[in-house]
Specification:
The protein is mainly α and 96 residues long. The chain is 40% helix and 4% strand. It has a two-stranded antiparallel sheet.
Length: 96
């Protein structure tokens, strides 16, 4: 596939790029052409019989059991509150 001015303009429009400078346009067109050429080479690779890669490794997540436990008491938590009301934090009203 050959990248032409129209293709470059459309890609620039979609990507919201400003490529009005002539030297920049030539550079970007050359860059895009190299990318397209590389993708065309990749398309020639025979991938029949190759399973799609879903995970990078065969490792499984090792998670600890989710068991509730009391590590800090309510009194200890509320001791750090700047303002509290019996068992709750007191905060400024945010909805009028």
């Amino acid at each position: 596939m050959k990248i032409d001015e129209g293709t470059l303009d459309r890609i620039a429009e979609l990507a919201r790029l400003d490529i009005t400078d002539p030297q920049l346009r030539r550079d970007r067109m050359a860059d895009m052409q190299r990318i397209i050429d590389f993708v065309e080479v990749l398309a020639q690779v025979d991938t029949r019989g190759v399973e799609p890669l879903i995970f990078m490794t065969e490792e499984q997540d090792v998670l600890r059991p989710d068991e509730p436990r009391l590590e800090i008491s309510k009194e200890q938590v509320l001791a750090n509150a700047p303002v509290k009301d019996s068992d709750y934090f007191e905060v400024p009203r945010v909805v009028g």
